Amino acid sequence: MRKHFARYTPEMVNKITGCPEDAFLLATQTYAASGQVGKAGTILYAMGTTQHTYGTQNIRSYAMLQLLLGNIGVAGGGINAMRGESNVQGSTDHCLLSHILPGYLAVPTNSDATLADYLKRVTPTTNDPNSANWWGNYSKYIVSLLKAWYGNTATSANDFGFNRLPKVQSGKNYTHIALFETMAKGTIKGLMCWGQNPAVGGPNANLERKALENLDWLLVTDIWQTETANFWKRPGVNPADIKTEVFLLPALNSFEKEGSVTNSGRWSQWRWKAADGPGEAMDDLWMLDQIARKLKELYSAEGGPSAESITNLAWDYGAPHPDVHAVAKEINGYDLTTGKLAASFGKLKDDGTTTSGNWLYCASYTEDGNMAARRDPTPDTYNIGLYPNWGWCWPVNRRIIYNRASVDLNGEPWDKEHPVIWWKDGKWTGDVPDGGWPPIAVDPENTKWPFIMKPEGVSRLFGFGRTDGPLPEHYEPWESPVNNAMSSQQINPAITIWRPEEQGNPDKYPIVCSTYRVCEHWQGGQMTRNMPWVIEAMPEPFCEMSEELAAEKGIANGDRVIVESKRGKVNVVAVVTKRFKPFQMNGSRVHQVGVIWHWGYTGLSTGDSANVLTPHVGDPNTTIPEYKAFLVNVSKA
Amino acid sequence: MAEKAILYDATLCTACRGCQIACKQWNENDEYIPTMENGVASNNRGSYENPADLAPTTWLKMEFREVEAGGKVRWLFTRRSCMHCTEAGCVKVCPSGALYHDAGGFVGYNEDLCTGCGYCVDACPFDVPRLEKNHITGIGKMSKCTFCTTPGLNRIDAGWEPACVKTCPPHALQYGDRGEMLALARQKVAELKAKGWSNANLYGENELGGLHVLYVLDDHPTAYGLPAEPRISAATIAWQDVIQPLGWAVGGATIVGLGLNWLVARANAKKEEKDAARS
Amino acid sequence: MQREVEKYRKPIRVLHWVHSGAFVILFITGLFLFIPQLGFLAQDGWTRLIHRVAVVFFVLAPLIYLALDFKGALRGIKQAFSWGIEDIGWLKAAPSYYFLGNEKDMPPQGSMNTGQKLWWFIVIAFGIIFVITGIIMWFFKTIAPVALLQWAVFVHDIAFIVSGAMLFVHIYLGVFHPMMTEAWNSMTNGKISAEYAQAHHGKWYEDITRGK
Fold first, then answer.
1. Has residue A39 been placed in a domain?
2. Looking at CB atoms within 10 Å, which of A283, A471, C30, C201 has the fewest?
3. ∠ CA A328-A257-A597 to the nearest 5 degrees?
4. Residue B39 has pLDDT above 80, yes or no
């Protein structure tokens, strides 16, 4: 690792990024000081770090940095994602990603013929008696999940219904870009689009809008008419040419229904209905319940491929409107022998006697009530801002995970003024310890290493198991105006390139472009571009550029400009600013511009979508699109 | 009620414009640009700053300034709204008492009493009041921030902070007794100076007798677009301090004089008649 | 029967009533803006509208008269602006004349006595000042520099105070003063008695009777 990163000198940083060495050193020295005993530093990041063809490795480098500085598991430490939506954490917890089941269980693949095969593939093992290897409990969680979904029809005789779960093809990419590429080929017949607006938010917007035309049917549920719902009548197309049947279901927004939202700190906070929704709008739960019941009816009556996957669902959350509390309780899980709500995931079993819709959320809704609904502002024992009785945090209300890394071998906190946990009188005090085992020096035989979710029990500086890595390395984005100064490998070698012909050449597109947001608008703009006050504050999409670039191009502040990439072009307002300066990168003067991406062709305020410019490439692990760095050219309109 | 004030800390402000929009929402002010069928007729003029100016329905807005010095670029954000001056030019000049000082020290405003004369617009050293007026008939009303004391929408009487203060995410806006806000502001300025911001200052402590919107700035007020030494013009002072007394004096003296003349002249006329009758 | 002479012809009388009527309306509507306690009367905007409508009459009436009888108007203006020794005599005699009725020290006056000349002067001069400052305040609100707008208000107000005070005097003399018994008549049916003419405008009476 030392040898690998020895090449990353301040001079190299300056050469590649243009950041002055002294500024870079000031930043690193300031941050490195957080590694001292009694100090801590946290890294807050968002899409600027992840939306690259090497986004995962960027995050890996944060993890490594924080581990080296001792900033994991301590108060004021950690790597914390700033979410674009309030419930992103909740959505990934409950498996809104294509590679997981709820609770980050692996999605079964076509190579998992039986439950045993699956468990063999996914369950990590260890020979170290001091490694807790918590994922060794995998079987308990998947079986409890299957019991929750299939109820009495899930028995040990039929692998608890394991084969009813849809299985993905091993190695195939089901993420957003791959989905739309498949749609563009005509393979996908129908799409349900819940509160999402890919026509504005997806990369290579023109491609994705066109791909939607291949659908036989499209279901959009949203609180406004969106560009996605209106793709068939977007500017430049004739609706008569498009055969897709589009259903638009009016949805309630988060204040008009009851449920929970989970933040970056993993706090699940229950929310109550504050207002009635308009017209016939309904909540997503009701819609899903209707669809599931209808599917069960149809499959029972007519049969069909994998009918048992649907007909056997233990689906009963109440009628006429499903009870969100019933769902929350199912997610927590039950002890079937007593009929009571399960107390924690430590009690879940793989013999079919427990259920849990998401093992991570076990203990969120117990016989003592809805823990997520608690609003007790009493501070924690050591007053570091944990508020343990406010809402509920997974796992088991542990507010800082890996917190046994915040103490020394004797269980004494490194930072005695901000202790997270403290071993006193033979027990842990403070936060729920991340594993109640005694400190390493206190009881070497029975202790466990702190990083319990890793089979080794220790953290990984060497990051194997990802598509790229194991050590982060600098590559240029797929489209870059300069050569990679670090090595002869220009781009991340592990990425998939669906459309090599769509790569822009720096001769024609010499300017670096990044897409980002403004605080006045939100995501694809479905809500904010229908709010007159917000529109007044931020009326139009714009392209920010340096005074130097504007002078070169004869562009005055407020002029309309065309920003063009290999994929498409947009017409927006120029904001000429001192905040942008040309870069010196690897010997070349490089200009950067930024375009905000909230706009589309539907709503009270319309405008061009920045994602018309972005490429259909992404990180090799997640395929998160490279929205943050690509090439364009700019000219006065 | 003790005197109250809003404290704006420009160094904490992120110019999110939550305050700008919360003000509109609470006071039921429409977006100033009328909504059209296909969108709001509003445009970006090459800046994050919108709308371009205060207006009858824009009582609060944020201004953006980019300054570059010593190779560093700074983006300065200024809150622009009524300063609620103690020596308020608008109150001095308002002929109908529509503008007045209320218990908290703010410049309160009763729209019903406004005659639309627009004298306040000319009297304000900060160019805040905005008049919506028909140029032919002269019928109009002024509009400005009321410190959330608009009748029917009075947050202060309800014991709440103004809408802008409530919504501010980084707590750049705070509200409380003016004495407390001053103490807090001085502390913030001291902290800024300790960090090397040698030009840090508190704006509004004594200007115009003391403003009820205080500013913690890390640079000269003029860098933030604030007048360094705001003052009320002589013409503004003349209205209340010269013309009013003069008018009453002259008018009163005239009427009294004429009344006296009438009494005296009539007595004389009667006397003459008597004399003439007798002779 | 008393002989009567015509003091004011009809066109003049019409001009007087239209112009003074407009002025009274201007004065009263202006007063609402001047006295804060009366401000509530102006809140619905009608006051401003009436003020502006009255201005139209105030300005048009003399302009129309000028157009129709330029020579006559000029004569009157010349008279109003010719000051001489006799005016000093009037000034010296005025206090005891108007208070005590002492007529013998008052020199014979022309068609316009000194006081009336003074009033004409004020009406014309301040009328122009009113209109100019008023135009600035009405039409240039968004264009003129703030200082100009504020000083226009100040000057408009000074004019209001002075001409307002003089208006009280004029109305008092025309209606209430015990000695000015036929002044009202002179402006309603235009006629005064020969005796009154002799006593109050002796010089003028002499001129017109000599002509006969």
1. no
2. A471
3. 105
4. no
DSSP for C144-208 reads S-HHHHHHHHHHHHHHHHHHHHHHHHHHIIIII-TT-TTHHHHHHTSEEEHHHHHHHSHHHHHHH
CA distance A147 to A358: 11
* b/e sequence A356-366, b meaning 16+ C-beta within 10 Å: bbbbbbbbbbb
C141 touches B at CB < 8 Å: yes
Q: Cα distance from B46 to chain C (closest Cα, Å)?
A: 25
Task: Give the number of other Cβ atoms within 10 Å of residue A497's Cβ.
Answer: 14
User: Could you give the count of Cα atoms lying within 13 Å of C22 in the half-sphere of its Cβ?
Assistant: 20
Element holding B39 (H helix, E strand)? strand B39-40
- The answer to the question of residue A369 being in a domain is no
What DSSP designation does C103 have? -
C86 — pLDDT class (breaks 50, 70, 90)? confident
What is the sign of the dihedral through the CA atoms of B128, B134, B137 and B142? negative
Contact B96/C147, CB-based, under 8 Å?
no
| Contact status of C158 with chain B (Cβ, < 8 Å) | yes
User: What is the CATH number that goes with domain C4-211?
Assistant: 1.20.950.20
Does the beta-carbon distance from C157 to B243 stay under 8 Å? yes
Chain A residues in contact with B55 (beta carbon < 8 A): none
Number of structural domains chain A divides into: 1
Could you report the average pLDDT of every consecutive run of 10 residues in chain A (637 residues)? 96 94 96 95 96 97 97 96 93 94 97 98 96 97 98 96 96 96 97 96 98 98 96 97 97 96 96 96 97 97 95 95 98 98 96 98 97 97 96 97 96 96 97 96 96 96 94 97 96 97 97 97 93 91 98 97 98 97 91 97 94 98 97 97
Q: Which chains touch C (3 or more CB pairs under 8 A)?
A: B
Q: At what angle do helices C46-68 and C10-34 cross, to 10 degrees?
A: 150
Residues in B touching C170 (Cβ below 8 Å): none
**Nearest residue of A to residue B66, measured between CA atoms:** A578
Say how far apart CA A401 and CA A386 lie, in whole Å: 12
Q: Answer whether A606 sits within 8 Å of B38, measured CB to CB.
A: yes
pTM: 0.89
| A555 in a structural domain | yes
Task: Report residue B33's pLDDT band, with 50, 70 and 90 as the boundaries.
Answer: low
For residue B95, cis peptide bond before it (omega within 30 degrees of 0):
no
Question: How many beta-carbon pairs below 8 A join chains B and C?
Answer: 134
What is the distance between the alpha carbons of residues B213 and B3, in angstroms, rounded to a whole number? 11
- Provide, as residue numbers in chain C, all residues whose Cβ is less than 8 Å from the Cβ of B110: none
Helix (H, G, I), strand (E, B) or coil at C118: helix
Subunits touching A (CB < 8 Å, at least 3 pairs)?
A: B
Residue A573 lies in a domain: yes
* Interface with C, mutate which of B131, B244, B261 (most C CBs under 10 A): B261
What does the DSSP 8-state code read for residue A630? E
3-class DSSP state of C204: helix
**So what's the pLDDT on residue C212?**
54
Note the pLDDT tens digit of each residue in B182-218: 999 999 999 999 999 999 999 999 999 999 999 999 9
- By residue range, what is the domain housing residue A614? 500-636
| Count of all residues that appear for chain C in the document | 212
Report the Cα A466 to chain-centroid distance in Å.
16
CB contact under 8 A, A575 and B31: no
A194 burial via Cβ count (<10 Å: 0-12, 13-18, 19+):
middle
Has residue B37 got a pLDDT over 50?
A: no
Distance CA B233, CA B208 (A): 11
In the numeric block, which tokens belong to residue B212? 């009820």
Neighbours of chain B (3+ CB pairs under 8 A): A, C
Q: Which pair of tokens denotes residue B153? A: 């929408």
Task: Give the dihedral sign, CA C75/C80/C84/C88.
Answer: positive
CATH number, domain with residue A544: 2.40.40.20
